[in-house]
Amino acid sequence: MALTDDIKQQIQQGYRDVLAGKGVRARYGQRLMIAEIAKYMGEITENDGQRTSPPAACVVEAGTGTGKTLAYLIAAIPVARALGKTLVISTATVALQDQIVLKDLPDLKKHSKMNFTWTLAKGRGRYLCMSRLESRLHDEGNGDSDTMPLFLLDSPGTEEPGTRAFFEEMLASYGSRKWDGDRDHWPEQIPDDVWRQVTTDHRQCTNRHCSYFDSCAFFDARKDLDEVDILPPEEVEAARKDLDEVDIVVANHDLVLADLALGGGAILPEPENALFIFDEAHHLPDKALNHFAASVPLNSTRQWLKQLSQALAKMQPYLAPATQAARSIDRISTASRDVDLILARVYEEAEQNTGWEFNEERRSAQWRYPEGELPETLAELASESRIATANLVRHLGVLADELQGAFDERKQHEIDRDTAEAWYPVIGAFHSRSEDQLRLWTAWTEQVGGQKTPQENEQGASDQPGAQGHPPKGRINRSPPPARWSVRQRWDHAEDITLFSSPVLADNLLYSRLWSRAYGAVLTSATLTALGRFDRLQARAGLPEASRLLVVPSSFRYGEMATVEVPAMACMPTDDGFADELINRLPGVWAGETATLVLFTSRRQMHQVRDALAPDHPDLNITQDDMSRGEVLRQHRSKIDEGLPSVLFGVASFAEGIDLPGKYLHHVVITRLPFSVPDDPIEAGLAEWISQRGGNPFMEITVPDASIKLVQAVGRLLRTEEDTGRVTILDRRIVARRYGQLLLDSLPPFRRIIER
User: Fold this and answer.
1) How far is it, in rounded angstroms, from Cα 500 to Cα 487?
2) Are residues 325 and 397 in the same domain?
3) How confident is the model at residue 163 (pLDDT cuts 50, 70, 90)?
4) 736 and 639, same domain (yes or no)
5) What is the DSSP string of 593-613?
6) pLDDT reading at 239 higher than 50
7) Domain match, 615 and 514 both
8) What is the mean pLDDT of residues 563-589?
9) Over the range 619-632, which residues count as b (16 or more CB within 10 Å of their CB) and which as e?
10) Domain that holds residue 57
11) Given the DSSP bridges, would you call strands 46-47 and 50-51 parallel, antiparallel or unpaired?
């Protein structure tokens, strides 16, 4: 029992010190959250450092204004230190990760008498690779990398991403230490296709053998958190000791999931020795699904195989005949041809024997395989592809190992050091890509159905589902089969078919890899319940039955601070004339307001409305797609500061995560209830499974999901206790349909104004 009187005193005194130091008052919800987390952690039983109590999580929904970050830090740090466990704080976004590291933790240490250490953990792919950047510039004829011109420090402002000038600016900023090489700290958003050119992964990185190692952004950021697999054996123990001596590791959900996929403890502390806190925990199930999804674009992969053949041909002259590396090249070439031939057959089969129905606007067609069952011929080809791709992965791995071995100066090797340094990143990239392809073929050949949920291991048996497909106590529940689908895409001069696979629920994955192993875990967010219940989260995240569930009240006086208004509308969103009514009604809706956010569920409709209103309101609207997210918000704030009205148009990503307190937002307009896209293959697979079990997918999936998204959208309005404003919902289904009352009641208790 770690929650001794002394630890309780530390928590209470720490909280009093912070309140006094910051000159703020205690909040009831915050105090309740502190007490609940501390009690949960203190009740975990152990024997010789190993948890003996059943798996359990502490789930706390804490609305905006609760001060949840301070609450879980105050409660968890003393308990974790007393237990000798590392506190791993995981966020959904790197922005929140930086906030905790750069603001919240220093602030807590400043105002309290708590003594603790922390470090930041981001994946390698968030950092600049100087070797890749140098190669990128060198390939364009910039000259020898040893004489790379760092005198470009005075180059003019930010250049268009992807241009030579942009990469030169990146080099200059990093060379002058104006930028630390962290993608998230670049002034503007860097597109994914541009960033991939200047970052790397563990398969391509030469680590300590790289000529830029001493100035590496990744290793500089992770001085206290070295990945064990990059170190010589004699340094592993020391690195692990340094990691264990850090009290707090601030990570993100993607990094936690990546570590779990490697078995846990490869990047972060072992789950058995860690207390996890998942902030913005409502993202975790979807993050897990994305992490364990896989895809293969068939024609693009065949083009990639041609590039592999060309690379092997260029590499071969640098290898002595009859060496292991030379033999590997021959085997890779053979394996590559085998994969190419099979992919051609897969493409022909998918193209000719699939009932494609093209969406001409998107120039694409999608086909979902019901219940994850593949046609017999396609299933056979998938099995052949798995075998051939596994063979390719194996031989690429042998060659990568041979190249890596040449870095060991203590041993003689058949490959010279210069050749290894030049070709290891290249072969590593091909190896990594082939492993990604193997994941898809492995997923496509796994047996469908029959998997047990995590709760089956804690319960008995039955065929009747509970809420959200979650089994009642004492019952057995089967997990849904994986979603498998194909997408055929057309361009002006090319076409491709991409194969996909994804779990439909992340319950098994999270339970087996995380909840069953972790010493303890806390999940918190402003939106964990759906329609007032935790059922949705429990089912999708596979939470143990013994988990503690709590909703703490917000300090906001909702009824005094804001109204929710539902005006009379002539059209429903499903009517053909709805877009025209939006165009006619919106100017009147935002009239008299200085700061408005209008949220759409469709980019097409957003652009349609914007284009129709632009002539009459040329300087009023700022649309999410006009520029980067940061620039959109900057321009919006600038207009408000100048005393001008501003109306933001946005879609789903603007319904969560943007922070416009005070004068920067007084009015949120919801054009349409945020129901899921009906053709999403993962949601369709889940709906199919629930229907087969006698459930109602609309009420069990669609409505709860919409309630969470609606609460998140409405949550943009009030960010501080001083904020006021109103929410306008233009979708009359919220009062005209039976489910509408459920959605309306899920919102904060604003004063309601409903036109009849």
Assistant:
1) 8
2) yes
3) confident
4) yes
5) -SEEEEE-S-HHHHHHHHHHH
6) no
7) no
8) 95
9) ebbbbbeeeebeeb
10) 5-117+247-291+510-552
11) antiparallel
